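Appendix B, example 12.
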Amino acid sequence: MKDVIIIGAGTAGLTAAIYALRSGKSVLVLEQGNYGGQIINTPKVENYPGIEEISGYEFASGLFRQAEKLGMEYRCEKVTAIRPDKTVETAEGSYQTKALILATGAKNRMLGIEKEEEYTGRGVSYCATCDGMFFRGKRVAVAGGGNTALEDAAFLSNYCEKVYLIHRRDEFRGEEKLVSELRDKENVEFLLNKTVQELEGETALQAVILHDKISGEEIRLEVNGLFVAIGQVPETEIFAGLVERDEKGYIVAGEDCRTNVGGIFAAGDCRKKTVRQLTTAAADGAVAALAAAQM
């Protein structure tokens, strides 16, 4: 029996572990992949209060070491089921807890077009920092209009001959500061009011076909790589039937991080909320842990 079990070892999950441990509770963190979550792939974090600049890997590693030093038990296991009595089952065993924190985050959303899966790893990528160096000196495109897309374009512009930034609207959703910086780069070109319709190539991606939403025209753009940054899908499928979720799959929980089931909390990007940033993930983790510590 653990006082608190946390599913997910991203910023929210590791922050929750730190706060629960500091409250004197025994904590088990279960993570099916690597710790750190999506921030681990971000080369430069500049919007976390009190830290002028840090890499995502350094940030996540610091959280992990801090939780480990406080006595966190960490297991790399995939959760297969959760019983109503808060027993968590994995392929390796089952664990009981008084309080459960769901902090599974979200995964990248796909474009949903033909041949997308076929070209994934052969020109189509969802992580510029992971795969960008494979396209050094080549022409690439980024699809998306939020901060992630803007950051991806900026990162790729340092290595690629040409970066096309494709967005379906006439204005970006991301920070104006990032947009302004990209406008000043000679090798970055904005393609607005356009969507990616088709992918072309033989053994690897060679071109994308764009649809102009204003003129209806189709445009063939020769590129070696396409980086998709159009949002996220919450990793909450396993919680269907356990806690309430909205129509998009996000767990319904207020700013107190309490779900509709007593003793179960949601923290981070898997929770239904307006703002999803590193700071809000950390805040959720702290709030959820302190509430869980009262169980």
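The chain has seven helices and 17 strands. Helices lie at 11-22, 56-70, 116-119, 128-131, 147-157, 176-183, 278-292.
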